[in-house]
Specification:
alpha/beta
């Protein structure tokens, strides 16, 4: 974790959802471990690569002999299962206050998630969190994290240079995507620290947002 208080300036914030704003680990574990058992994989092996990316990308890594079409069809079935299962979906500590502070200060921000629209709207609602007006979902990208496409699209949607954006992420794939986009990354939660984010926090209670007269966002970390 970032031990001493840090202030990071930015013009926009790009926010992952699962593990960053919403704790959906219970659902993800249930569904991916069921998939692992059905395909003869060790559940821990699958969970080590499943977080933070689109399901078909995980399947392509684990089942390289399968066709893209088969992986995408399997992914669509899993997304439907996830969208129907909101049991245990809760906000990450501090997420509600963090998002409220962005909205009240009119701080430019976007959701950049590997989930599709149905799943992301469902999980944000289940966690009682406002759904950002600007979002990049699975439907909007051709390449999953760790490819930087989603974050670069989010910056473009907000009209902000990538170097002036800060990403909030929890997974190795997401942190790699943010760094590859030329952005600084706030790593959130227990998975993030081992993947080299710019700073690392246990949850969003450790982050305070200030918007100054110039419109610049100051992130107070720690």
């Amino acid at each position: 974790m970032t031990a001493t208080p840090t202030v990071l300036p930015a013009r926009a914030l790009l926010l992952d959802m699962d593990g960053t704003l919403v704790n959906s680990d219970a659902v993800v574990e249930r569904i991916w471990r069921r998939w692992a058992a059905a395909h003869g994989f060790d559940g821990d092996e699958v969970m080590a690569v499943a977080h933070g990316r689109q399901g078909h990308a995980t399947m392509a890594e684990l089942l390289p002999e399968r066709s893209v079409a088969e992986n995408r069809a399997d992914n669509a079935r899993m997304l439907a299962e996830e969208t129907a299962d909101m049991d245990g979906v809760v906000p990450v500590p501090g997420a509600a206050a963090f998002l409220d502070s962005l909205i009240s200060a009119a701080a430019p921000h976007a959701l950049v998630t590997s989930a599709d629209v149905a799943l992301s709207t469902g999980r944000m609602a289940a966690a009682g969190l406002p759904y950002p007006e600007v979002r990049v979902t699975a439907e909007n990208v051709g390449a999953s994290k760790p490819d930087p496409e989603g974050f670069l699209k989010g910056a473009a949607e907000l009209g902000v240079d990538p170097a002036d954006c800060i990403v909030f992420e929890d997974s190795g794939a997401g942190i790699a995507a943010g760094l590859a986009a030329g952005m600084r990354v706030v790593g959130v939660g227990p998975r993030a620290g081992q993947h080299g984010p710019t700073v690392h926090v246990p949850d969003l209670t450790a982050v305070r947002v200030e918007v100054v007269a110039s419109g610049e966002i100051l992130l107070h970390i720690g």
